[in-house]
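Question (not urgent): is this output format expected?
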Amino acid sequence: MSKTFLRFRDVHEYGGQLPVYQIDESGGVSQFGILQPILDGYYYEPHTSESPQMYRSLPWFIQDMRPDGFMGRAFARNMHPELGLPERLEDWSDNHLLVALARRGEDCIGDLIVGEEALERYSQSVRENAPPIAARERDTSYPRMATAAMEGKPVGSLAGGEQPKFTAVVERNGSSVNVLVKFSPMMDTPGGRRWADLLICEHLALETIRSAGLPAAKSTLHIAGGRTFLEVERFDRVGRFGRIPINSIGVVDDEFFGYRDNWMNMADRLESSRMVSPHDADVLRWLSAFGEMIANTDMHLGNASLILEDLFKPAFSLAPAYDMLPMRYRPRDGEVTSPQFSPPVVASVSRWEGALQHALQFWEAAAHDERITSDFRKICAANRELLCGAASGPHIVS
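Got this back:
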């Protein structure tokens, strides 16, 4: 459709168009395109020779910037009077999201910034260049930041997910590193101890994945102020200000396929469409198998991501693994339970067999890690035996 015949509309005080900027790995800014609301969707003009595109809702490569989860709800509660937006995220339209991004979207997931005001806020943060949190300060800073988060004022960028968290910039080996910090409730309650156990298990699972030679987010554990903190290096950031384009596989599936089922099937779709390499598709399948074997019941399509390499093919590489832990054992409504683990039937293909050996390695490490409560270590030891039994039984031949 010719642009001449499109019916454009205004978004609050921003008029009929919003510039979109991209932050590169050194922190530099370049024009990415122009986003223009139209009567029945959005018209996007890339800052390249590629053709403009029309979308019924906000373009897929912007969708992961949407505030979500623990930090997103707090953002909506805190900012709705100033921005004139609904207090509840579930009441936001795409127009509401655009206003939030244009005014306070300078530090979202990925590498894009929408609007001049958000870009100016990013530029101000570069000019101010606040010092990172030193290693010796973590034990005092993290409990204070956790308290602020639980009071509804989480610090940092709009990371998604339901687990209480904040983001920070820390000093490591003389460099600034962007991290996401998950934290347990106070550990003087059963629920707090269980979440502490699970965060330790997440750290062990990420280490196990890396020991298999596969990419996983780097993590560090801190126990301070009566809580356990899992500090995870952000793979959508480079140094203090650099950024990398990240999209969840859920957003990619919504735009190009529309199934929202599971990682295994999504790996097949991505490979058959040549959006990722066969190797990356196999890694996603491996991670799916490993997650099943460590009782991760939360492998939805927002918990795996892709690094955008070409917007117009489109083409991606698989991002490092994250959010990998035995979520089967998370507290429910404050109650700690120990549901029976039912190991999956192992297929007799190499990715399952490799994932099996590393899942056994994970349960073994968790069963002997003294930072984990004795009760949960017993569960981990029992799960290793159950998985061993499943491994010695019949296999699916594929």
